[in-house]
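Protocol step 4 of 5: obtain the predicted structure for the target chain.
Materials: sequence only (see below). No template structures provided, no constraints applied. The aim of this step is simply to have a reference model before the mutagenesis design in step 5. Sequence pasted as it appears in the construct record:
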Amino acid sequence: MSTYRLRLIQHIDEIDSLQWNAVTGDTLQRGYRWQRYKQYTQVAGWPPTWTAFVTVWSGSHLVGVATAYRYPLPGPFRAPWLRRLAQIALAPTNPINFLVPPTVAPGAEEAAVFPLLIKGIRQLMVRRLAPGVRMVFLEQPHHETLLYHLEQNSFLITQGIWENDLALNWQTFEEYTLSLKSSHRNSVRKQQKKAAQADIHITTELPPDPTEVYALFDKVAQKNRSALLYTPQFLEQAQTILGREHFTLLRAVYAGKTVACLMMFHDQSTAQLAAIGLDYNLSQKYNLYRVLIYAAIERCIDLGLQRIKGGMSRYDIKGRLGFVSRPTKTAAYAWLPLLKKGYSFTPASLRDSDE
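Step 4 output (structure tokens):
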């Protein structure tokens, strides 16, 4: 049996990109470029947002990784200053989050590496004075071995967030629209035409002033009683770290001004719809949220991608566009049982059913 050792790492630059990608592949959200982008764009301030890496090594070879994120949780208050106070007051109870499941390198011994990763996660909790851990987007049977080891280590496994996926089985956007129900197809065409008649056009060109895009993203975050977790330089970092072949910014432009925008990440096969920004008055009048999703689907078909990950909410809209909702599991661990149950809670708005 190989001898494995555990190492906690604070910055992604301490790890060689080839070593990392040998574990995860250069894949969406998991790969080295995505981890680097996440860490370089995380917002500063208090409560602190930080990234750390739990790693397992066999000699000089990286064989297991788990990326930890800790950030202020959204507050229930409408007023920004009240949310801010709540975030500061509740900061000691914030869990460490794992939005990407821990990964073991192909050929490595999962039965040995997964327990070490879990041990490292607990060590990170002690080091960072965190009361608990939350892992989301776990799926059976894909993560069956990981789920087994989590249960063996006293993690609470519950029904979690539902994700929306669209399989891209068409050569053109027109073929895609023909696959929809006639009422939905007519709605797509009507909404696109309405925006075009108002001289609103969709572009993938980057804006001359990225601050207007950031402001639109912030409007949506504030309406959702949350806060942006990345810096105003996120677009510059996307160009530098990801490159245009791995991200697209779709913008709805009216009278020379960006009035709605959608950030989309993608690797060689899959796209992830990410941040959305809206001028709510114009967006509601011209259904720009949907128009941007149509443009994203068309962009992905043109890129020859196979799948779009549509996020974890608003399935009522995405379902009409062909997205299929699927359940995932959440794993939670905490020093206190009450916190463990709290971390495992998934709001009904993020579940397609209660089953």
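Step 4 remarks: The longest strand covers residues 156-167. The mean pLDDT is 91.
Proceed to step 5.
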